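Let's practice the habit of predicting before peeking. Look at the sequence and jot down your guess about where helices and strands might fall. Then scroll down.
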Amino acid sequence: MRLIGAGTRRGAALTDHEVVFTVPNVLTVLRFLGVPLFMWLVLAREQYGYGVLVLAIMAGTDWVDGYVARRFDQMSRLGRVLDPIADRLALTAVAVTLVIAGIAPWWLLAALVIPDAILLALCIVFFRWHPDLPVSILGKVRMAALLLGTPLLLLAKAVGSEPNALQVVAWIILVIGLAGHLIAAVSYYRAIVEKHRREPRPKGPAAEGRPT
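Done guessing? Here is the structure:
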């Protein structure tokens, strides 16, 4: 089964619509809501197994909303912005939770957050918000690895004694994901700078067509 780009109709053009209320966008909002539930289960209740289940559902909605958007022509400009934000929020929240719970080291959180923080600062400086860049294949693969490795790390904790084979597998996948995360960050940095050179941000309210 095709995982990346699943749902794409052969020969059909992919168009971003101006709609807000679509099935993919609703699924993305549900992914946002899964974040506090996950944190509560792990930190307040220490229910690691249920935490893994919530992460699995969140990862599933990430794939399903993309499939539905492409298959049923429900791609939207809002979804293009919301989807990566939901992914980043979920990943950061998971990393914060694992660090607080003593399951992961602090450098895992730093390796995830620092590159994204730099890119966010560039986006704000150059474009005032989202640069609307397409997600690269590497970006999708690294996100998949990170969203797979973190639940496995939590599952290894739920299984019991450490270290165990599941923990080793989780760290192998996480290291691959982190390497891809850094490489993708450099790629997005170059794309942001290049787009800024081609399309410099308008200066002042008058240049944006707003009354002064």
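How did you do? The two ends are 54 Å apart (CA to CA).
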